[in-house]
Amino acid sequence: MKIEDLMTTDVGACRPFDSVDRSAKLMWERGCGVVPVVDQEGRVIAMLTDRDICMAALTQGRALGEIHVSSAMSRRLWSCRPKDDVKEAETVMRAHKERGGSFGSGPNSGSHQ
């Protein structure tokens, strides 16, 4: 099975200076627990998970509307290509002890870090 058989192509994204409440609403609307964080050119620079939001709220003690995505996002990224086998993605996830299945794919993908 290939990554393209499982991946979502209509993905919502957020920017580093968005508030995490906007990102949480996006996750709720899209029925997902993770969104990519993109720069001005639309390149993925980080990922933001629902867990990242919860931990930021707990550790920062502020309302979600006051917390920027940049203070909660995970900058560690690994990627794969749509034509890659799912087993390859699984190997990368295991090697880096990733819990979720969020990999970027696009013009900047292909490197595993």
CA(first)-CA(last) distance: 23 Å
Quaternary state of this entry equals single chain
String of helices and strands: HEEHH
CATH class of the domain at 8-75: Alpha Beta
Q: List the uncertain runs.
A: 101-113
Shape annotation:
elongated
**What integer is the average pLDDT?**
84
CATH superfamily label of the domain at 8-75: CBS-domain
Q: Reading side by side through the largest sheet, how are the strands ordered?
A: 1-2
Number of DSSP helical runs: 3
Question: How much helicity do the residues have?
Answer: 25-40%
CATH architecture of the domain at 8-75: Roll
Radius of gyration: 14 Å
Output the CATH topology of the domain at 8-75: CBS-domain
Give the percentage of residues in beta strands. Answer: 5-15%
In terms of structural class, how would the helical and strand content be classed?
alpha+beta
Write down how many β-strands occur, each being a DSSP E stretch of 2 or more residues: 2
**Mind summarizing the main beta sheet?**
2 strands, antiparallel
